[in-house]
Design a protein that fits this description.
Distance between the termini: 57 Å
Shape: elongated
Oligomer: single chain
Number of domains: 1
Helix content: over 70%
Structural class: mainly alpha
Number of helices: 3
Largest sheet: none
């Protein structure tokens, strides 16, 4: 069973890393803007990587993913607040 858990962790980690890379490439080539979707994608990818680190721990990666989760969460909150401020009032 530990081997299957490690395999799942590796798949989650690879998926999270792939999502982050694609997201960054799309941002670089201006195919994606920094908005709520961008922050949600980054958060999902960081959580996938974080979960993989619970099985295959690496301190440096753990620190980066904690930072990425917090930063993405702050971005999500800011985007939601911005939408509330600019929403037309009835």
């Amino acid at each position: 069973m530990p081997d299957s858990l490690s395999l799942i962790a590796d798949i989650l980690g690879a998926l999270g890393a792939s999502i982050l890379i694609v997201c960054y490439i799309l941002l670089t080539f201006e195919r994606l803007r920094v908005n709520l979707t961008y922050h949600l994608i980054n958060l999902a990818a960081a959580i996938a990587l974080f979960l993989s680190l619970l099985v295959n721990f690496n301190l440096g990666s753990f620190i980066i993913e904690c930072f990425w989760i917090v930063t993405s969460s702050v971005g999500i909150v800011r985007e939601i607040r911005k939408k509330r401020r600019t929403a037309p009032k009835a």
